[in-house]
Amino acid sequence: MSLRDILSPARVALQLPATSKKVLFQSLGNLLATDGSGIDPLAAFHGLNERERLGSTGIGEGVAIPHARIRGLPQAIGALAVLEQPVDYQAIDNRPVRLVFALLVPEEATTGHLQLLALLAKRFNNPAVRERMLRAKSAPELYNALVEESS
Questions:
Q1: What is the pLDDT of residues 41-89, one digit of tens each?
Q2: Pairing verdict, β 58-60 and 63-64
Q3: Annotated catalytic sites, by residue?
Q4: Are 97 and 64 in contact (CB under 8 A)?
Q5: Residue 147 and which of 10, 45, 65, 122 are 20 to 30 A apart at CA?
């Protein structure tokens, strides 16, 4: 599965306002619910919030990959955002987060879920990709910065 399979250009946001993790997860829930995805924004928010209670999904270098299993979800779905201002996220390097990819997977997902997380981590661990995303001037440019080399 490629990132193009789970990320729609309509679920990409530049300058997403968020003042805390809670506000961020609410915004991500709304973003995940766009373009006819059928996602319940409240279910997405609760799923991301509950998973985060188990430990931070901030992977360092200003990046977070919040994720959750959602009952009844037919396939994995994602949303990508550059935040308007960095948010304190309790990431592993204690740096605030500015780049976020939210991933929702079916409740029964196993190996595919882990492969998607590994693919995302690989892309976000590339300094050139992170820089390109942070410099994006439009949502399509941001989308392409993440998915172009991942297919």
A1: 999 999 999 999 999 999 999 999 999 999 988 889 999 999 999 999 9
A2: antiparallel
A3: 67
A4: yes
A5: 45
